[in-house]
Fold each of these.
Amino acid sequence: MRVLTFVTTGLLTAMTAMADSSVGTWRVEWGQAWKVRGDLAKGRDLSGAASFGGDKALVISDETRAAQEVSIDRAARTLTAGKQVPLLPGAGPELDLEGVAALIEPRAYFLVGSQALSRKGGVLEPDRGWLFRLPVDEAGAPDAGAVTKIDLRAVLAADAELKPFVDKTADENGLDIEGLAGREGVLFLGLRAPVRDGEATILSMKVDALWGGQAASGSDQAASGSGRATVTHHRIALGEGRGIRDLTALADDAGFLILAGPSGGGGGGKKSALGEAYEFWHWPGPGSPAVQLGPLGPAASSEQAKAEGLLILSQSSTHIEGIVFHDGPKNGAPHGFRLSPPTPR
């Protein structure tokens, strides 16, 4: 596998320096649209993407029971649809997949359902509550035969701070996961809701604690996941009615890139004065505040496009480049972006 080389000397310093108003602001460039060769499964409902680098990635849709491989041609700005990777056997309801992350250790993709009740009727669809681990080989190819899962909803329902929101719909500011990132054996889950006092939430949990240190199967997975995992809360001040729509880890401990947007929650949550706008934010990590980098541009193919997924393509001391995927347009209307840090004065 050809691995992307990340040179981030100075990037974290530039990001951290955003707290100093004399430094200036980030430059957010909304690049060109990407093409998709072939059709992505349920491609109007794309919700996330992740990669181990090189020319391969995995995309997800919230209307399927599988992930899908894609090939990346950066020179041609083209994504080619590949094979689907089933996460659960047979037919059944959607998994409502909303987050996917690539972890080097353990070497696997992790995929998570929203955990949310349905907006219509407040029904819990049983397969929304899983967290999946999909191992990959050295070439980056996922092994569908080695998928394991845990009952993440049981873990979250046992958390005292989350418990009041678990059985509420998203319209009532109830639990709704939309982002997933990972670093050094820890998973970070970005919540679209609840939003409390203008703060969104990122949850972190150790992979070994969730899986009990083993790749269990069947009902043993839920038991091992619910018994040992400690859920740590990180409050992120994005503003009233603003939730996390995706989350991805940057290389070399440079923190996390957040895609923020409307939480969509009523009830205890207040609506956002920014409406349907979306922004890039940087979060250095636990113990630090997040800083807004700038707004996204519009998806050229649809005014109704909702930014849902981030895929980082390259990162250096001078820039971050990647793709934003959208819910609504065909094949997610992938669109390029480039973030450049301010130059110290």
Amino acid sequence: MNSRELVRRAIRFEGPDRLPFTGSMGETDFSGDTVALFPDFGYAWWLGGGGTDEWGCEWKIMPGSGDMGQVKNIVLEDIDDYARVKVPDASDPKRYAAWPPILERAAREQKYVVVCNGPYLFERAHFLRGFENLLVDIAMQPEKTRRFIRHIAEYHFQTIAYIEKHFAGCIHGYRGTDDWGTQTAAIIASGQFEKVFQPVYAEIFGRTHRAGMDAWMHSCGQILDILPHLIEAGVNVVNLMQPNVFPIPRLAQFKGQVCFEVVADAQSSLPKSDEAAIAKEIQALLDACCSSRGGLIEVQLDRMYFEGDNVQRHIGEFCHAEYRRRDPFLQQIVK
């Protein structure tokens, strides 16, 4: 079973021969079963220097911090003017000019290709509107906020349409990010999420599926209350970096409904380098997330974890070896 089939079967609960594992999701490489692909955003403002992104958000990065920085301006001063926000032209062929040789190699090596296209909705909205302003908008003007969110989504609709027209069958997953969780709960109430955001996620995920791709999403924090809404909207894969905040056993309620992309807790476990504790956590994740037919994709630790989360490289090797050793699908074959 090749890499593409392994990932697809894990996502769709069709019984992979082994646990699939990712290549880097921060840069394009061929080290795992997945290959990440990125549109050309014109200027990589997040790689240390800051600057203005293509939506007009001005990013400031503290020297030596190593993170992506923070937005320091407000593009949308008045929610009534949301239609004036200029959506980047996702139909510009220059954004995709570097893709063909990557896709040719991925096809030869039978890899599962994931387009990684930045924020979906919430993050981009608060980058443009300001975090506090957006929370007030959600509470006081939910319908207008939903229209603003839908306006932002045009960027993803255009991207998906371009992929379907020019790269049909070559790309297998579409991935975005929205950090929805605090340490203890989602940032907004479940009912607010259902009213304002879920319909637009459903449209994005629906278009993703119709274009022949699985819908992937990263979200940091404890998002237990909104996960059912994301699943109902059609998300296929959810990336978790802090599974202990749920805590892990509570993820079992979603077994068979969604595939989790995870390794161990990047906040509380991995930086401590306690191999015995990490091994116990990996087993807990396998028990909670894996059905007999799929449900988990191992995150192979990369530079983002080593440089951004202070995880030692030998811990990345240890985690990968533990997932191989504990692979429930290989054990089924042996039995």
Amino acid sequence: MADVDATRGTGPTPPGPRQTADGGHNRSHEVDALRAAETAGRPGAFDDHHPPRADLVSDCVHCGFCLTTCPTYVLWGEEMDSPRGRIHLIAQGLEGEPLTDSMVTHFDQCLGCMACVTACPSGVRYDRLIEDTRAQVERRHPRGPRDRALRAAIFALFPYPRRLRLLRGPLWAYQKSGLRSLVARTGLLERLAPTLATLDSLAPRLRSVPRPPRRVAARGTRRAVVGMLTGCVQSAFFPDVNSATVRILSAEGCEVLIPPGQGCCGALSVHNGRRAEAERFARRLIDTFEQTGMDWFVVNAAGCGSSLKEYGELLADDPAYAARAVAFAAKVRDLAELLDELGPVAERHPLPVTVAYHDACHLGHAQGIREQPRALLRGIPGLELREIADPEICCGSAGVWNVLNPEPAAELGDRKAAAVLATGASLLVTANPGCLMQVAAAIRRQNGKIALAHTAQVLDASLRNLGVAALTND
């Protein structure tokens, strides 16, 4: 087969499924053909270590329901930058096609937002397909020097909370000195170093918040013992979200355990094909929390939560950790998910504020958690909840996708910011640090006026009777 050209609009439309005499899809023949290709020993795109599965590929019937929810297809209208187009490329690889630069480009351009998984009427596991494909790409495809250097820098920094915290001092000085505003006015950074310009635009305003103690007792009757992930970006740049999370859990009758030695959960690594690295992070986190006696493991970052719930799949090949990973994953709960399961006991005080709620992709699409955070917000007296148009379209953050792809990420961010501002709400609420940074940067570009907060901060303000000013005064 000819290689698919990466130029916009020139990729072939993937063929539809074969038809039987009665018009049905003869998918068993597709599965047999793809499985035969997998075992034929051809030097195709994938090796035999967790290649994308042929039976999952065959589940796609090319119906197109995914197209309108895919951010890159919405931006470019290119078939090979849609989920079904990428599945077609995966099928080519299983049939013996090599892993070419253009094929890798289309895989790289996927945000991994999983909106297509929600939209698919056939239940296609695109999340599993793209994750296995990216792991193959990282092992088998030689990247150019610039791409290698950028990815090496990202993954030497972002998954390490201590390294990120070392940036707080210089970043605080940069923001307070007025140098940031001066650099922004000149526009030089965008022209000379677009990656640095993206990082600069994403950096939140830093606040000094004491680190939470190792153990926080439940207030009133103890209802559960919970371990808590402090995270990487969350702990370095949004420590106030972690503090709010601890206070909420304690107020709702949870004893909170926060071991100081915890590190990255591996989400950024696994979502970018760095499987071995993600496995190391997962093992360490399991070792840290396994003997704490926790009932639940609470997460307040959507991307982390979706990966933690898949530890059983990540470590399935490790005989020392496979069963332990399954048991650990069964205890993982998003903050809103756990609070919804436990039910409220702490008093909610009024917060007369209009809120636009943004579904973080790895909370809504990957974990299916949509109603729980809305129920928490609606349970606050005086709070009015407003929905955002086109909620299924990603804001463009997608882990580190916005750093690797700053221009299309900014375009997606601007689309999301416009939809947020159109609600007329005074506060945007979401449950992921990447989304908070991405949308905040886009709103600044549009000179918009809306405050931003994590779900935990809103509920914390209500429980402590702090009033709206605690959320809207920046």
Amino acid sequence: MLDIKFIREHQDIVKSAIEKKKVILDLDELILLDDKRLEILKEVESLRAEQNEASLSIMGSNAEEKSQIIKEMTLLKEDLQKKEEELKNIMMEWKKMMIEVPNVPDISVPDGESDEDNLEIRSWGDIPNFEFTPRNHIELMENLDMVDFERGVKVSGFRGYFMKNDGAQLFFALWQYFLNYFISQGYIPMIVPSLVRKESFIGTGMIPQSEDDLYKVGENEYLAGTAEVATMGYHMNEVLEKSDLPKKYISFSPCFRAEAGKHGSDVKGIIRVHEFFKIEQVILCEASHEESVKLHEEITAHVEHLMQELKLPYHVVINCGADLGLGQVKKYDIEAWMPSQNKYRETHSSSYFHDFQTRRLGIKYRDTDGKLYFVHSLNNTACATTRLPAALIENYQNADGSITIPDVLRPYMGGKEVIIKK
């Protein structure tokens, strides 16, 4: 959430952000609403002051004066109650509009209408040149008895799946490999809830922007589509010490996404599913743009290092304004090469937010001078299963349908070098 003072003082900048992110919001309407809010707030405060003054004056008054003051206080109380109710209604409308105001994107973010306008900034690895027609991950995994889609649909419904045998082992191997690396980099490992209260979704900006893609399971609870939501809620309404920053978490959780509006996209396979598992990097740092930029490059570099260790060809794109979330200042997508589709597909998303999320969540830190500031937040996928395994399986396939296991994962799969048909 942006500070209303910032919004009022930099309306042109905020309007540019609304346009760049393709958000539907009338900023002029918000300013008028805020004017009304401030006007009624001033009236409420004035009436409260009158009420307090009358309460004090009644103590030194005679019986006749007291009776008159009480009558006046009764009328005053009625006026105050009406104004407080009016203020309450205005505040509800004001808060609803405030959480829809997007964060201001970095100047380096390109313009665009969709993810088709994201710009490649670098690539790594050689695109595999198979001497045979590459199979897709669905065919490869089914032939090797790594997955069962038919029973997955029977038990779980559309996009359901069972990972089994070497498929299940591959997931565990990736989780452990990625987890060990991030622990070695000083990250705090956490297993976080998937069932999360609405406050954390509003705080991270998932609501209202992505509410259609969430599963609501209670009056005030949803299933999260990323461990970011619960991890950001971990320090909600807390004051941290500057000496404890940056806080670096590597969080694991099951994830759930309705994939609303995408029923015709990736219907088969494990690229786009309703339930999956994810390890997420989340960082809280001091309120410094330079620090956020530095850490943004760092969390992206961590993933690139691991992709290179896995020897998976990929490229990095900078997302255009229309492909940024409500709170993101800047975002990179890391996309792995998918041989069967002859294109790159997203496996990781790396973003920073300044204090957009933490202002909503009430996460502050005490600086060395004793002043309180909202921390800055960042996040990036570490390992999303199922997408990363799909890319790995397709790139490591062999002519006979077997799959070579990357060197770095073999210790986590009992030394096995190749997945073959049993």
